[in-house]
Design brief:
CATH architecture: 2-Layer Sandwich
Number of helices: 5
CATH class: Alpha Beta
Structural class: alpha+beta
Helix content: 25-40%
Distance between the termini: 62 Å
Radius of gyration: 19 Å
Number of domains: 1
Length: 256
């Protein structure tokens, strides 16, 4: 485990901001969705603020997953194009992703309905950057983690295309931190390994996924204990328990 100074959220120089402005999402105060895909729930997305690694509670981890797509003829651009289009299909069964009609594009929301330990968790992420060879998503308040994930592809020095997922995040609140230390971290690593394996299988490749992880900051940010208020797991349980009432209410409104 390596201890380093906590990393700040990335700042882009003015010349870069102007050069690649089309790839960056506009900054928003709170998340809003003009439409919700069928099967998705916005209960822990709408009205939430985006939160980065500085706003979380737990230890800060950087994890990098890589798979070599040896032998494929596709370029890194083609790999990322397919990745964007089939992002929900590459997820494990317990993770259901619902992109908007615009797909993986700057400013768009990806709704998530997952099952964690048998309990439903409705949440989502926002695409804050997307170009031809990468895209980055950022988490909202209440998500299990605070931070971002970058999905990318590049050509290695030996000519082989490498697909990569890199995360910089920490557990959002004390409950999530405990969960990550017990089983959550291993489960999360299994999810992103599955995604890269699925991407490779699409191109006919069955290579192992390499994982490198570093604890960037081992400290807990006790000032962020208040994040418990937005815990998506707890709120998803309440939302699920309230489903019968919402159904009856909708039926009466339709009759009216």
């Amino acid at each position: 485990m390596t201890e380093q100074t906590p990393q700040k959220e990335p700042e882009r120089p003015p010349e870069q901001r102007s050069r690649d402005a089309e790839f960056w999402a506009q900054r928003v105060e709170r998340l809003e969705a003009s439409e919700i895909p069928a099967g998705a729930a916005d209960v822990n997305v709408r009205g939430r603020r985006e939160v980065g690694a500085l706003q979380g509670f737990g230890q800060l981890w950087q994890k990098t997953y890589r798979v070599r797509l040896a032998g494929i003829e596709a370029s890194p651009e083609e790999v990322v194009r397919v990745w964007k289009e089939k992002f929900p299909e590459f997820q494990p069964p317990q993770n259901r992703f619902y992109p908007s009609l615009a797909g993986v594009a700057p400013g768009e929301l990806l709704f998530i309905s997952a099952t964690v330990g048998g309990m439903p968790v409705h949440t989502g992420v926002r695409v804050i950057y997307a170009d031809d060879v990468s895209f980055t998503v950022m988490t909202p308040e209440g998500h299990p983690e605070s931070g971002w994930n970058t999905f990318s592809a590049h050509r290695h020095d030996d000519g082989v295309v490498v697909a990569q997922i890199q995360s910089l995040a920490r557990a959002n609140d004390p409950v999530y931190e405990l969960g990550f230390r017990l089983v959550g971290s291993t489960a999360q690593e299994a999810i992103w390994t599955h995604v890269l394996k699925s991407l490779g299988a699409h191109f006919g490749v069955n290579e192992p996924v390499d994982l490198h992880k570093t604890c960037v900051d081992p400290r807990l940010q006790w000032s962020q204990t208040k994040n418990l208020w937005h815990n998506a797991g707890a709120r998803s349980m309440l939302y699920t328990m309230g489903a019968p009432a919402r159904w009856f209410g909708g039926m009466f409104r339709r009759r009216g």
